[in-house]
Every structure is written in structure tokens, then in C-alpha cells.
């Protein structure tokens, strides 16, 4: 490849002729970051869609499970245990906060 006469080309082209690898690297990184940011916005939209779909499917599954447990007669006992454990955990947290404030 013959070297062109540097006096006949502009400043930007002079930089490209002197450092062709740097120019290729700069173009590559520019294209990479542009693609990266475009895909990030698409990814966040897709993430929101799949999260909503997952929550919908999970709610349907929980509803079906609850119906089956009710039919079998297990849900009443499980509901009481869950309410008891929830109440116990909440009162423990409140008691810890009150004790920490008292110190």
C-alpha cells in the first residue's frame, strides 16, 4: 500500500493515516457503546414485561394451590400457622426496635 502525500489531505485524515489501528479501535468502541446502550433500553423493557408475566403466572399458581388446599381441608390449619408466625415475627421486630430505643 502506497503512503499518500500527507500535505494534500486534511487534519482528520492525517490522524487516520498516521494511526490506522487507533482509528479502527475508536470506531469499534463507538459502535460497541452505541449498541450497548440501545440494547440496555430494550432489555429493561423486556425485563419489565417478563416480570409482570411471571407475577401473573405466580398469582394464578398460588390461587390454584389455595383452591386445592381448601378442597382437601388443609388451608385452614396452614392459614392459622402462617398468621401466627407472621404476627410473631412482627412483634419480635417491634420489640427489638423498642429495646434499641430504650438503650
Strand content: under 5%
Structure summary, number of beta strands: 0
Discrete helix count: 3
Cα(first) to Cα(last) distance is 81 Å
Could you report the average pLDDT, rounded to the nearest whole number?
A: 79
**Structural class by helix and strand composition:** mainly alpha
Main beta-sheet annotation: none
SSE ordering: HHH
Based on CA inertia axes, which overall geometry fits? Answer: elongated
Helix content: over 70%
Description:
The protein is mainly α. It has a domain at 73-103. It has three helices and no strands. The chain has helices at residues 11-18, 20-72, 75-102. Helix 1 packs across helix 2 (20-72). It is elongated and about 90 Å long.
Task: Please describe the topology of this protein.
Layout: H1 11-18, H2 20-72, H3 75-102
Helix pairs in contact: 1-2
Question: What's the quick description here?
Answer:
The chain crosses the membrane at residues 20-38. With 103 residues, the protein is mainly alpha-helical.
Features:
mainly alpha; elongated; 103 residues
Amino acid at each position: 500500500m502506497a503512503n499518500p502525500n500527507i500535505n494534500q489531505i486534511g487534519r482528520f485524515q492525517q490522524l487516520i493515516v498516521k494511526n490506522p489501528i487507533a482509528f479502527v479501535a475508536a470506531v469499534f468502541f463507538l459502535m460497541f457503546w452505541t449498541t450497548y446502550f440501545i440494547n440496555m433500553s430494550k432489555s429493561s423493557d423486556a425485563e419489565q414485561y417478563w416480570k409482570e408475566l411471571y407475577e401473573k403466572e405466580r398469582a394464578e399458581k398460588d390461587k390454584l394451590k389455595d383452591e386445592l388446599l381448601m378442597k382437601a381441608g388443609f388451608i385452614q390449619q396452614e392459614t392459622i400457622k402462617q398468621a401466627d408466625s407472621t404476627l410473631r415475627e412482627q412483634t419480635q421486630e417491634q420489640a427489638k426496635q423498642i429495646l434499641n430505643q430504650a438503650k
